[in-house]
Amino acid sequence: MSDAFCSDCKRETEVVFDHSAGDTVCSECGLVLESHSIDETSEWRTFANESNDNDPVRVGGPSNPLLTDGGLSTVIAKPNGSSGEFLSSSLGRWQNRGSNPDRGLILAFKTIATMSDRLGLVGTIKDRANEIYKRVEDQKSSRGRNQDALLAACLYIACRQEDKPRTVKEICSVANGATKKEIGRAKEYIVKQLGLEKGQSVEMGTIHAGDFMRRFCSNLGMNNQAVKAAQEAVKKSEEFDIRRSPISIAAAVIYIITQLSDDKKPLKDISIATGVAEGTIRNSYKDLYPHVSKIIPNWYAKEEDLKNLSSP
């Protein structure tokens, strides 16, 4: 039940919704306040363990403006029964003869959706990646290129543009066999093509070490206090001229923070969680070490604790 204004009662009253008739009725005087209203609640859902014969779904998927027909084309299913098999075989042949211009796009969008789900990305990033791929595909210049690398690169660029960056190594882990080098080349190719389309350079968004910090700390199982200290430290590190990649700085800061805590993490574990080589973390630690007293928050570690840090 919910409240609505009744013109007969002249006040807000409780109303009842009659689902069978689509009427909204005042619970006190019985006046029909709204008739034949459209039910906008969620549709029935079919779960994986339910039989296909009892599918209660009455609608198709959502429309997709990136597809020629909006993704609302009709597909002839194969019904049961001998006559049904004959009918489906006849119509099915005609359906298969008709070429679907969006078949490649649909498969590409499904691959992007699968990669996004495996990385736990939000829907806006997936939609942005679909849009980037569609723009590249419309230029008809990607034929012969590694499709998996191209799709992975679209997802990488989408993450950057949505300010939720992922490392190339993370993207590579879900890229169906595409290597980091192949994804890097595909990224450069896409940026070039989109730049030619717009007549200007493509905005990729700036990567900061802090963008990766919470996720890396979560992978290592660090406590909230250590995570907060790492975030403050990596933000402070931006004030100094440390010529390392943001991912390397993030890994080095995590190493320092864990060495100052009771729950010390081995360098190997940090390397696995961040995707940064152990040697790179050591070199980044060397660059951060002279500034460690200004980077690490005072509330997290005292000056004598910082002196006990092993020198690089």
Automatic annotation (TrEMBL):
Recorded hits in InterPro entries, A to Z, give: Cyclin-like_dom, Cyclin-like_sf, TFIIB, TFIIB_CS, TFIIB_cyclin, Znf_TFIIB
Q: Entry's Pfam families?
A: TFIIB (PF00382), Zn_Ribbon_TF (PF08271)
- GO annotations of cellular component type: nucleus; transcription preinitiation complex
Gene3D superfamilies in UniProt? 1.10.472.170, Cyclin-like (1.10.472.10)
| Sequence ranges assigned to domain TFIIB-type in this UniProt record | 2-34
Q: Which GO terms describe its biological process?
A: transcription preinitiation complex assembly
For whether the record's keyword set contains Zinc, the answer is yes
Q: Where in the cell is it found?
A: Nucleus
Question: What are the protein's GO molecular function terms?
Answer: TBP-class protein binding; zinc ion binding
Q: Does the keyword Transcription apply?
A: yes
Q: What keywords tag this UniProt record?
A: Metal-binding, Nucleus, Repeat, Transcription, Transcription regulation, Zinc, Zinc-finger
Question: PROSITE patterns of this UniProt entry?
Answer: TFIIB, ZF_TFIIB
Would you identify the family this protein belongs to, as annotated? Answer: Belongs to the TFIIB family.
Name-wise, this protein is Transcription initiation factor IIB-like
Species this protein is from? Cicer arietinum
Q: What is the lineage of its organism?
A: Eukaryota, Viridiplantae, Streptophyta, Embryophyta, Tracheophyta
